[in-house]
Amino acid sequence: MKFGQVEHPEEIDFTLPPTTPETLTLLQHFKIDKPFEVYVGCAKWNKQDLKGFYPRGTKDELAYYSTQFNSIELNATFYNSPGVDQVETWKKKTPANFKFFPKIPQSISHFSRLLNTGDKVKLFTDSIVHFDEKLGMAFLQMHDNYNPKDMARLKLFLHDWPKEVPLALEVRNKDWFSKPEVTKELYALLEETNVTNVLVDTAGRRDMLHMRLTTPTAFVRYVGANHATDYDRLDQWIDVLKLWRENGLQKLYFFIHQNIEVESPLLATHFIKKLNTTFDLDLTYPNKNTGNTLF
């Protein structure tokens, strides 16, 4: 993942911004006494990207990956909308508690730019609902040149989105975050349509770390810099999540990328261990039951 990559990450201030008052107010509105639902994973299961992660002789990468993590940010669906048969195949290879978080195809987000996409959305959603209980949340990632002048188009798309499929949105153009009146309108739209606001923690775009939730679900896409600071950054997230959970956070979906993906499982393992200790969870992570060291 090259978006937000910088040449000298040691020069970046990685301090997480304070949580917005609006986020705490929203969480408190939804606060109920129920177990904390947490899913943490990587973006890919491809052996070439995660070189060294798979034991020698591994024949099915997804089947193995799904025994080590409880979820995957499914970027493969960005390039082509999967057929029902493909979804069924993926589903059958994974354990009962595993979830997929498929990215909406670029034919909808980038090529059509949300215009006249009804048939394409139906094709995509009619397929991914076959994940059944293993469907976590679809997410829509817009091109960084998609800006607020097309707000009306976004409104129509979100209002028309099939409500039985949970949805998260990531906008990238800087104007969404630099103009307060635009930002306020965007967040109001997401709350109105029950769409989760994606937070992106990446070195070169700290403006996307808005700390503004629009549902009681936090969907975080964390991009490491292949630098020693990556672990400290994850530790900061534990403190933020404690605050959010205390105020009513119900679900956490946290996906870890790297510019060089080979290190993603190492970071994810570190983070999951911290989550397990902090929130008294029992999330799986690589070699949890063997005591072996990754790679």
Automatic annotation (TrEMBL):
SUPFAM superfamilies: TM1631-like (SSF117396). InterPro entries: DUF72, UPF0759_sf. It comes from the Bacteria. Gene3D superfamilies: Protein of unknown function UPF0759. This is DUF72 domain-containing protein. The lineage of its organism: Bacteria, Pseudomonadati, Bacteroidota, Sphingobacteriia, Sphingobacteriales.
